[in-house]
């Protein structure tokens, strides 16, 4: 006998209503569990890799090239003077660099390779680093000509977002000024210590320079990182033909710095491996081989060897070097060096690798350098991270030698 379910028992919920309620309850439970898992994943995979900002670099013009410069020009035989512009004080600037927040021991002992791949600082960061590889900062300057006094005026104002060239994560920039094709006579600004956003505000006067000769010259600015103990590192350059500038009044320019084309060409590449052993507190550096090294000798070859410096903060701790390979631009070294590095000091450690050309009768020449640390260039940082991510395993990588 058919009975109407709605009339079966007044006030009691039907079977369909109970079924729908059960489905809704199960769905809400699954949603809560999933949300909890997502929150847990975010906490485990996100907060562990939260980065901290380190502020470096403040203007400092009290040291370095602080004296006024004067040179004689071939055009007219008069001097070129430079004097800083008074009355303007450089503003405090800072450069923020991203570093891993967790300790090295946490990275080694508790992180898996999968977590490293999912964390910030892996593929996505490397893509950004690749995009910014050519970002060398920019420089502001002014140019003008006084026809009555036959004087070309060049004012170097400031630079922004310069790359860090020192292992301490900053630079000591200054600017060289040329009027090409004359490269024998140059002028220089002061050095700004530990500053990636320097203010110079220095004016250079090229006096007694006829206008018809000025328009045949190219204003060339080269920004370098001052190094007291070794060769200054080029940061970037700007060149502007003066015949394309309206010199009747001071013109101000912002120009992006480009890689320095000093005619030296490529310095070659070096293949090396790093192996970090956290239990032994050591790093093994294996200098494997080099290719296409720059010829430093008159005969079109070089006698290369490799120096490996262990640096802690600003101090040189230990140095080792390979044997010299005679007349060889593609040498094979295969020499390993072990350095004792406590885990807690790893973040402040830099390994400087220098390829040298051996000379018997004169000073040995630097072919190129590589800086390996948390704060180096994109390729170097990748190698350092890979070394940490794979303890006790040699990690090999090619590196382009830099000036």
Rg is 30 Å
| Average residue-wise pLDDT | 74
Number of strands: 20
**Multimerization state:** single chain
Helicity range: 10-25%
The ordered H/E elements are HHEEEEHHHEEEEEHEEEEEEEEEEHE
CATH top level class name of the domain at 268-401: Mainly Beta
Shape: elongated
Enter the CATH topology name of the domain at 268-401.
Immunoglobulin-like
| Class by SSE composition | alpha+beta
Binned strand content: 35-45%
Low-pLDDT segments, ≥5 res: 1-9, 32-72, 74-133
The largest sheet has its strands arranged as: 2-3-9-6-5-12
- Count of alpha and pi helical runs: 7
- Distance between the ends: 98 Å
In short:
By secondary structure, the protein is an alpha+beta fold. It is 18% helix and 37% strand.
How would you describe this structure in keywords?
403 residues; alpha+beta; Immunoglobulin-like; six-stranded antiparallel β-sheet; four-stranded antiparallel β-sheet
Draw up the topology in text.
Elements: H1 5-8, H2 15-46, E1 52-56, E2 70-72, E3 79-84, E4 95-99, H3 104-110, H4 113-118, H5 123-131, E5 138-146, E6 151-160, E7 173-180, E8 182-188, E9 199-206, H6 211-214, E10 218-225, E11 233-241, E12 251-256, E13 269-277, E14 282-291, E15 304-312, E16 315-321, E17 332-340, E18 349-357, E19 365-372, H7 378-389, E20 395-400
Antiparallel strand pairs: 1-4, 2-3, 3-9, 5-6, 5-12, 6-9, 7-8, 7-10, 10-11, 13-14, 13-20, 14-17, 15-16, 15-18, 18-19
């Amino acid at each position: 006998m058919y009975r109407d379910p709605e009339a079966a028992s007044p006030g009691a919920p039907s079977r369909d209503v109970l079924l729908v309620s059960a489905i809704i309850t199960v769905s809400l439970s699954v949603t809560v569990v999933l949300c909890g898992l997502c929150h847990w994943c975010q906490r485990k995979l996100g907060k562990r890799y939260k980065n901290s900002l380190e502020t470096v670099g403040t203007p400092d013009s009290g040291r370095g090239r602080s004296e006024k410069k004067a040179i004689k020009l071939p055009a007219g035989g008069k001097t070129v003077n430079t004097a800083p512009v008074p009355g303007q004080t450089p503003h405090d600037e800072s450069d923020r660099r991203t570093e891993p927040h967790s300790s090295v021991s946490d990275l080694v002992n508790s992180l898996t390779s999968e977590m490293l791949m999912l964390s910030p600082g892996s593929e996505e960061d490397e893509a950004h680093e690749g995009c910014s590889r050519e970002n060398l900062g920019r420089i502001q300057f002014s140019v003008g000509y006084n026809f009555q006094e036959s004087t070309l005026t060049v004012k170097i104002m400031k630079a922004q977002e310069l790359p860090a060239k020192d292992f301490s994560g900053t630079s000591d920039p200054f600017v060289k000024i040329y009027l090409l094709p004359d490269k024998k006579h140059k002028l220089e600004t002061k050095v700004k210590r530990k500053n990636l956003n320097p203010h110079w505000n220095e004016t250079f006067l090229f006096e007694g320079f006829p206008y018809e000769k000025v328009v045949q010259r190219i204003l060339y600015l080269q920004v370098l990182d001052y190094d007291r103990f070794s060769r200054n590192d080029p940061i970037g350059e700007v060149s502007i033909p003066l015949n394309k500038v309206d010199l009747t009044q001071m013109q101000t320019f912002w120009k992006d710095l480009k890689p320095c084309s000093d005619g030296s060409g490529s310095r070659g590449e070096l293949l090396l491996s790093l192996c970090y052993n956290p239990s032994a507190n050591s790093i093994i550096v294996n200098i494997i081989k080099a290719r296409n090294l720059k010829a430093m000798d008159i005969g079109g070859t070089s006698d290369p060897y490799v120096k490996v410096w262990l640096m802690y903060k600003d101090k040189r701790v230990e140095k080792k070097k390979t044997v010299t390979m005679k007349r060889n631009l593609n040498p094979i070294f295969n020499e390993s060096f072990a350095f004792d590095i406590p885990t807690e000091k790893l973040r402040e450690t830099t390994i400087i690798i220098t390829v040298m050309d051996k000379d018997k009768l004169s000073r040995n020449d630097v072919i190129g350098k590589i800086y390996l640390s948390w704060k180096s260039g994109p390729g170097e940082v990748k190698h350092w991270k890979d070394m940490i991510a794979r303890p006790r395993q040699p990690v090999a990588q090619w590196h382009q030698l830099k000036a």
